[in-house]
Design brief:
Blueprint (H helix, E strand, L loop, with lengths): L10 H22 L8 H29 L7 H39 L7
């Protein structure tokens, strides 16, 4: 199997996964520090899906460290398929929750604009 930049078991892949894990944890921290985040269901789901992303990324960081330390090959079909399916699941859930958050905020804006007698710009 062709080795690419950022592939499993390489230093570049480890650095990318560490960055992914740290940025996901930072986004959880920023979202949780917002006032009243727990009152919006979509926002809570977004934080939960980011928590899933942190756990997945941390698990892959540990796997990459193990592979680099003991010189293991992570380019088998089964392991690469596991990476692909896991990344697909975590990214799909994150995108769905982001869409849900957007739609929730959009639905909240329309009645607020009508209450304030604001006009829609077309």
């Amino acid at each position: 199997m062709k080795e690419m930049f950022g592939s499993p078991g390489k230093k570049s892949g480890l650095i990318l996964r560490i960055g992914q894990c740290v940025l996901a944890a930072a986004s959880i921290g920023f979202m949780a520090s917002a006032s009243g985040f727990s009152t919006t269901t979509a926002f809570c789901y977004l934080i939960a899906s980011m928590g899933l992303q942190v756990l997945w990324s941390f698990g892959l960081v540990c796997l990459d460290i193990h592979a680099l330390r003991f010189n293991k090959d992570l380019h088998t079909n089964v392991i690469v398929s596991l990476f692909v399916v896991g990344d697909w699941v975590t990214n799909t859930s994150l995108k769905l929750r982001s869409l849900q958050l957007f739609l929730t905020s959009y639905v909240d804006v329309i009645p607020t604009m009508r209450r304030m007698n604001m006009k829609f710009v077309s």
